[in-house]
Amino acid sequence: DLITIPQNLAYWESIHTDIDSHLKKSIQIREPISVFEPMHHFTFTPPKTTASALCVAACEVVGGNREDAVVAASAIHLMYASIYTHNLLLETVRVGSESGPGIENLHKFGSNIELLTSDGIVPFAFELLAGSGNDSGRTLQVVIEIAKAVGAQGMVAGEDDGVEAEKLGGEVARQLHGCGAACGAIMGGGTLEEIERLKRYGVYVGKIEGVLSDEGKDEGVKVELVERLRGLALKELECFDGKKIQQISSIVGV
Amino acid sequence: DLITIPQNLAYWESIHTDIDSHLKKSIQIREPISVFEPMHHFTFTPPKTTASALCVAACEVVGGNREDAVVAASAIHLMYASIYTHNLLLETVRVGSESGPGIENLHKFGSNIELLTSDGIVPFAFELLAGSGNDSGRTLQVVIEIAKAVGAQGMVAGEDDGVEAEKLGGEVARQLHGCGAACGAIMGGGTLEEIERLKRYGVYVGKIEGVLSDEGKDEGVKVELVERLRGLALKELECFDGKKIQQISSIVGV
After folding, report:
1. Would B45 be classed as within a structural domain?
2. How far is CA B155 from CA A189, B15, B40, B163, B252, in A?
3. Cβ B156–A119 below 8 Å, yes or no?
4. What is the tens place of the pLDDT at every residue in A36-57?
5. Cβ contacts of residue B137 below 8 Å, gap of 6+?
6. What was the ipTM of the complex prediction?
7. What is the DSSP letter of A108?
8. Contact call for A152 and B35, based on CB within 8 A
9. Nearest Cβ partner of A137 from B123, B136, B158?
10. What is the domain extent for residue B214?
């Protein structure tokens, strides 16, 4: 594969491990089982997203401690899980069938539970954030960032009937990359400029992932597009200390 | 009507006016019109709820200023509006028809917009709260209260397939009465005990409204039930200054 991006895997894996263990502590299967079992399932079923990992990495770039960003990163993961679960449901509706090979594994719960859980995860994420015990002012800023990313902007993307559920989900999920990076920078105490730059960096990372996952596109076109986006992404990091950006920039293969 | 409850109307109307004018400032019809026009519509279409009014009244009972509670009360109204809009949609699905007398007025927008808007109002309410500029610690507590009321508890109520959409909505909406009163007490700087007592008072108020709106029940049974709930509600107010509770207790007709 020509455009596989080499990454500093150990760094990103350590971040995912930290987010995962926070989520495991926060979302235990407890009473009422009928709520927390599907919530647990839909939290841990989706593939990992770099949106939440970027949150931790951005915090570290601005000189913050990882612990300050882990709750925000967990909230970002939950929002992503909600979108992912919602898409699963919409996809089923679109295909118009709940049967087929492997569909039983995909749909462990009924569509009513898929809908209730994907909706219920959103307030739970805000509850988790608000109860984190991190700096209050920064936490409130993060609540605003995340609410904006999953709120009105998601609605704008969603109202276009021409957009397939899958693409729509991709669009909203991509918003989360910029949001994730911004939230990390906020929790790490970044300046307004640092927050803005890291947000744009996150948006480019989301776009690069979108290009790479687009199976309909010509490989040559993809390479060119990714190169251009990577250049724009790295430009946003120029104002930071060269040593500090080594890790976060590895996500675009530098 | 035997059990119409006389209220201190001027007091409650002044609260609704203050909440309304805050919501009107916050949700103006602006770009993107396709998002904010339906959001405006679904915010101002539902009948007034006492859940948001209780928020302001509870704040005043614990000695807080009305301005401290108006944003939280607006967020409560938005959550209620989201539930109300969701129910409108579910009711249409249940009845299985989008036609009928008056249905055009009820459904000014398509069902996709109803769904997207009811979902999108929830993060918007958190955004509004987080950006209020009120005390950070209290605001975060309110985020937690509201998230709990509309999150897992709503899911518990919703998973029971036997419950009709209308009743389910009633159930979740009732949670909002306790939540509203608790949030007001938090914003007004109430003690833990005051917050708990006002929350229970709110739950009783919600139950009383539920009984009164239940058209299937015998009038005699309703009178008896309301009397009992009113007694329990007023018991929760005993620890407060007698003069201060005059206004909030007028909602149960004292």
Report:
1. yes
2. 36, 30, 26, 12, 29
3. no
4. 899 999 999 999 899 999 999 9
5. A136
6. 0.86
7. S
8. yes
9. B136
10. 9-248
